[in-house]
Each structure stands twice: as C-alpha cells, then as structure tokens.
Automatic annotation (TrEMBL), chain A:
Family the entry assigns: Belongs to the cytochrome b561 family.
InterPro entries: Cyt_b561_bac/Ni-Hgenase, Cytochrome_b561_oxidase, Di-haem_cyt_TM
Cofactor(s) it depends on: heme b
Protein's name according to its UniProt entry: Type-b cytochrome
Membrane topology, as annotated: Multi-pass membrane protein
Domain Cytochrome b561 bacterial/Ni-hydrogenase: 6-174
Amino acid sequence: MNKPQVYPIAMRLVHWLMAALILSLLFVGLSMVSSLGPWQYTLLQWHKIAGVVALFAVLLRVALRLSSRTPALPNAIPKWQQAIAKLTHLAFYALLLLMPLSGYLMQNAAGRPLSVFGVSLPSIIATDLAWYGAFRELHAWLSIALILLIILHISAALYHGLIRRDGVLRSMIKH
Amino acid sequence: MRYGALLAIIAAIIAAFVYAASDKRQPVSAQDFVNLQQGDVIQQGFRRAHANGFCVSGEFIASGALAEYSSATVFQTGRHPFIGRFSVAGNNPTAPDVKAPVRSLALTLLPDSAAQWRTAMNTPPVLPVGTPEKFYQQLQAIKNNTIAEFFAAHPESAAFLQWRASYQPTQSYATEQYHSINAFYLINNAGQQQAVRWAAVPSAASETLSSDSQHDSQQEPAVTDSLQQELFTRLAQGPVTFDLVFTLATANDNASDATVLWPATNPQRIAGQLVITAANEQKGHQCDALNFDPLVLPAGIQPSEDPILRARAAAYAESHRRRAREVLLESLTGNNSAKGAGDE
C-alpha cells in the first residue's frame, strides 16, 4: 500500500490548531499559579474552558489518526530513531488526554463547580483533600513531562527540516 | 549555521518556559505570600493562615430581597444548604483561639450546585492597605516588629486603625460581625450591576471578652479551642444565626479600594438568615477539603477590580495545594502526624 508523502489536510489543521491551544494552556497555566495580578482570575477561567476544548480536540485527533493514512518516516532513518518517534507520538496522545482529565478531576476533588459555555459539567469524584492533592500534583508533573516532550518534538522536527532536509517536517506543513 | 539556528530556536523555547514558570517575574508571588504566612515551622496539612478552626453547616434562608439585584440562585427566596468554617488568624493550629486578633466565618453555599458561592469573611470591615505588594510588606512588618512604622508610612490604614481601636472581641464566634471586606458586583437578569459589600451580623447578644481570657491569667491559661468549645456548647442549645446584610455602593464609593469604609448611610438589604445547626472538628469533615476562595462565584455575582481580591484567590490556591500535598503524602505513607487541615 502506498503511503502518502504528507499528512492529510484535516490532521495538519488539527495539529497546528492544537499546538497553538496547548502552548497557550501551558504558558497560562505556568503563569497563573504564581501571579497575584488582576488578570489571574480571567486567565484561570479561560484555562478551564480551553482545557475542556483541548480534551475534545484530542479525541478528534485520535479518531483522525486512526482513520487516516499517514506518511512513513524515510527508510534512511535508523530503526531506533523510528521507534523513538513512535513512542513520543504515543506519549503525546497519553499526556494530551491525561492533562485535561487530571485538571477536571482536581476541580471535582476541590469541590469546585465547572461550567463551559454556560453548560454545567458533572462532578465525577467526591470532594476530598488527599485526592485533590493527588490530581493537583499529577497535573503539575504531567505538564512538565508534556513541556519536555514538546521540546524534544520541536528539536526533532527542526533537525529533520533544517539539518537532514528529508521531508519529515514538510509532511506536517505542506499546503 | 543551520545547527546554530536549531539550537537558538530550542534555547528560546526553553527560556520562554522557564520564564513563565518562574515566580520571580513579579515583585510578590503567591508562593512568596504563603512562604511568609506559613512561618518558620510548617504545620503539615494545615491551612497556612487561619489554621485554627472547625467546620459548621446549616441553611441559608434567603429572603428574596436581593433577587432584584442578582440572578444568583442563592438569593432567590428559599432554603439553601451551606458548609462553613469558623477560624482565627494565624498559622498555628494549636495557638489559643481566643487571643487571635481576627476571627473569620467562611461559607460555601449550595456546595453541590453549579450555582455554588464561596465567601471568606473576617471581623475587620476594611484592610489597612489596598494592594497585594503593600499587604505583603505589612506581613513583613508584623514579622519584623515594625508594624507601627508601617502604619505611619501608610495613611490609607486610618479606617482600619480606627476599627481596631474601637473593636472589642466578644466571648463567642456567634456574637461577632464578619465582613466581606472586598466589594463585588451583583448582576441582575437585566444585566444591571450594583457594587456591594456584605456582612454576617449576629442575632445573639454579645458579651465582651473579659481582659482575663484575652491575656494569660495565672488561674486559667488560654487553651487552643475555648472559642470552639463555646460554640459547640451554644449549638447544643439551638441554632446559631446571622443576618446576611448587604450594603449597596453609591456613586461616591470605590469598589476597588478595600481600605475605605463606605458611609453608614448607604442603603442596606438583608439577603436572608444564616442558620448554623451543626459543628464538627475540621479533621475528617467537609470544610477541611475546601479552599474558601472568594472568587468561586455563581452567575449573578462578579468580582470587583479590587487587586487584593485576585491576590487572595491566588494565595489561597497555593496554600490549598501545599496542605493537600501533605495530606496526600501522609495518606500514602500512613503517617498520621498531622491532625488535618486547617485561611483559605
């Protein structure tokens, strides 16, 4: 079966929109936990709504990934690098699911109501301090893992685009 | 050259993340606040301020008098459940409650509803200073025993100092007045907004605390929880009640400045009656898990632009995170040294 040279347009579009959304979520998240600024409250509200949107976006992303034919990495790339590429992509999907879920559950455990675009969201777990601690810490540690993964991902993409010039970066940006 | 470009881009991305994660971007961070408040001895699992306290619960019987000002469910005529917490200022959960300079009543109304409302009220009606940075300096001045110089250098503390001079602590949590301090906006169905402050005004007659119980006397040393015991005893006789009284701002009042008292001639509305029917130790009870963040607001109430209000929310969140982490670690290691949580 022939593999395409580039990712389908739907996947490229979702990839870049999610990249913008997730980078915004990470920067807002990192800033709002220390700031006493007047915009802190507004950003916190935005962070919660954007987090729920990101959860639906990643579900869409998984569905697209499973139903699309995606380009293979060039044969010239060593097997161990191909394996790492697969692993990082899997790790991305896992983290992108766990980030909004841990955020949601920490709000539940803190007994805080959540609503998005005027829709009240159900509480899945009971109010509990230790569980709040667990999900609050998980949310923080997962965000650090996600940031490290993003740095690795961008490094690899630029390595392919700038150094090897092998079409791997182009497969996600070609229009 | 191309390697240089790659490295420069990656370095820039890492620098951006490190900058965003640093709490040194601003003069005072939520972490700085909590570090100062918690003091040198960490009380594991307890709130970093107002550590000494206990849980209460009951019902708010809304009169409907605020329904024309706010669409919030809690102000519509009816009975609305709440979980609350009485506490005193300070980071030590075992310091004698009766000796603390500030007492608090915090409430989470309609805890199981999307229309939940949290408020954390204190005995002073105003703050000495109006920005988080100055508030931080005030805490530093208390620590360094230079608070008199601090107040002298901050004339906006006049209203607070006047209150402090006239304030007589009572012998009960049930006979104090607790104030929202910061202003909020009520929003009605037509979208009109009205700036307000509120206070829980006690129904019970007060007896002023004798100077003996406030200062250590030889016969009867102050204990950790004499105010708590008093309230437990009082509740055994029947409910403890407060009127929730709202003061409406006029065109002359500034909703963003918590250092200025609004005139006593401003219009007031009684939103309803708080009826406290039960009290429990904080450990193992519902209020312990809650951060009484004054920015958990239902539709129909919005925060004012008061910078202190935003800072309260951020500092409470940091305190909540720290004690939750400690309680989690204790539950994982089976170490029960901490007796629970305890100013969020």
